[in-house]
């Protein structure tokens, strides 16, 4: 007998979930990079936030329609299976488990550590920072592995806490900047001439801050009147997120000159908070930023611990019987979780050697915080195309127009990644295809054994 989840969430709860899932550390982490990429051109930086937000909103809407059509579907792997097929879903799942979740999680561990180092005056590329990053990874893993309930409570708490510095800077920083003229100065002065690739680089950076919205489609089975409320929640939630990010960006510009933020990086952001909220208040709000990063890390670690398990539960991937085991005490896929932590450690080592010091990897050097996210947009393309082919019962707006806009957004992200990262995209694609070939060999072996 099939069990059904209770329809317990209304529209406003769903909107709050979308906002809580999407808003994370990315806006704090990437605001300075967007400003640098555009040469301190505040208007062009805002345009990057808008373009990235529109791509997110169009894709979110298409997936929301997909979620209402394929009821009880959870996550991109299942959407891939419903539209393209089981084999494609398997390769999407392999990418998510081996590359996507571990790379983003390892970067978030370092982001959390670097803001901690700013508070204590340590180097953000030195041994102290990497040690703290490792401790954050292990702590997040431990909380998720030993007490999923505690991890869930921590996630809820950080969702509330991370909104505090965001909205305070957006409101107080903007008001202060309008009063003292700093906002007008930053809007009318640029630090350097922006390059042709500046906007593309900024949009790719913004994609990191907007990532996570697809997770919200998982609540469709528990949402009252899902066919109406899920699209409304996703559109409203993503619009609120985009507005919050832009207002924070403008608020930041009302505190100190753009060149200070660009030159100082995280120290510049700390100075911005201290300028508006005094030294003590600025440091306190900066602690909230760290907690926000740790909350995002906690959520991503949850995905890491279940990455290989999502394949093993389907009887796929390496050693399905081993990695599909769930601990009866903690209700956690322990073997999958341990492998997830191990992959995070490998990708953290890579991130340090490729991005924080003189490159250890030669040609194979790329930004593991952005290119995996752009790859997800590339993986959406076959899903959107097959959705249009198979969804004959939908109206033109839902079947053709919005999926085509989503496709255009995905293609834009792919092009932007090339302009932003150049040959590093080739290096990343080589690593990507090696992982896919490895996954194909495992799939072939499992199919041979099961014959």
Automatic annotation (TrEMBL):
Gene Ontology terms for molecular function: L-amino acid transmembrane transporter activity
Alphabetized PANTHER family for the sequence: AMINO ACID TRANSPORTER (PTHR11785), SOBREMESA, ISOFORM B (PTHR11785:SF512)
Membrane topology: Multi-pass membrane protein
Keyword Transmembrane attributed: yes
Locations listed in the record: Membrane
Regions that span the bilayer: 9-31, 46-67, 88-112, 118-138, 159-178, 198-219, 231-250, 284-309, 330-351, 371-388, 400-419, 425-443
InterPro entries: AA/rel_permease1 (IPR002293), AminoAcid_Transporter (IPR050598)
Name used for this protein in its record: Amino acid/polyamine/organocation transporter (APC superfamily)
Domain of life from the UniProt record: Bacteria
CC annotations in GO: membrane
Keyword Transmembrane: yes
UniProt keyword list: Membrane, Transmembrane, Transmembrane helix
């Amino acid at each position: 007998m099939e069990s059904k989840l209770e329809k317990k969430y209304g529209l406003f709860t769903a909107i709050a979930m979308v906002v809580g899932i999407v808003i994370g550390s990315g806006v704090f982490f990437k605001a300075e990079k967007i400003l640098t990429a555009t040469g301190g051109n505040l208007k062009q930086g805002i345009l990057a936030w808008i373009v990235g937000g529109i791509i997110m909103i169009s894709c979110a809407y298409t997936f929301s329609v997909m979620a209402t059509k394929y009821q009880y579907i959870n996550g991109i792997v299942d959407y891939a299976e419903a539209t393209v097929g089981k084999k494609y879903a398997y390769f999407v799942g392999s990418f998510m488990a081996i590359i996507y979740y571990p790379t983003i999680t390892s970067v978030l561990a370092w982001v959390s550590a670097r803001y901690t180092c700013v508070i204590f005056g340590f180097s953000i590329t030195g041994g102290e920072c990497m040690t703290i990053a490792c401790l954050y990874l292990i702590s997040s893993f431990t909380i998720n592995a030993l007490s999923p309930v505690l991890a869930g409570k921590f996630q809820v708490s950080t969702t509330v806490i991370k909104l505090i510095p965001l909205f305070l800077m957006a409101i107080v920083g903007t008001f202060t900047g309008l009063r003292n003229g700093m906002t007008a100065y930053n809007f009318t002065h640029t630090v350097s001439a922006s390059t042709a690739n500046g906007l593309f680089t900024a949009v790719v950076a913004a994609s990191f801050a907007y990532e996570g919205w697809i997770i919200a489609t998982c609540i469709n089975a528990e949402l009252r009147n899902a066919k109406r409320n899920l699209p409304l929640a996703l559109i409203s939630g993503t619009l609120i997120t985009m507005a919050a990010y832009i207002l924070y960006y403008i608020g930041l510009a009302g505190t100190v000159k753009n060149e200070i933020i660009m030159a100082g990086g995280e120290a510049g952001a700390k100075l911005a908070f201290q300028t508006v909220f005094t030294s003590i208040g600025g440091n306190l709000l900066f602690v909230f930023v760290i907690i926000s990063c740790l909350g995002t890390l906690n959520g991503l670690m949850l995905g890491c611990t279940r990455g290989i398990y999502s394949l093993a539960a389907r009887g796929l991937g390496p050693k399905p019987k081993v990695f599909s085991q769930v601990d009866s005490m903690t209700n956690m896929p322990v073997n999958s979780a341990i492998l997830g932590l191990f992959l995070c450690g490998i990708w953290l080592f890579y991130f340090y050697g490729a991005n924080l010091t003189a490159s250890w990897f030669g040609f194979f050097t790329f930004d593991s915080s952005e290119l995996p996210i752009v790859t997800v947009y590339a993986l959406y393309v076959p899903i959107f195309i097959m959705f249009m082919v198979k969804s004959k019962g939908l109206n033109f707006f839902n079947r053709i127009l919005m999926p085509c806009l989503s496709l255009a957004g995905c293609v834009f992200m792919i092009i932007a990644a090339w302009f932003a990262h150049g040959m590093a995209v080739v290096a990343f694609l080589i690593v990507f295809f090696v992982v896919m070939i490895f996954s194909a060999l495992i799939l072939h072996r499992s199919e041979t054994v099961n014959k």
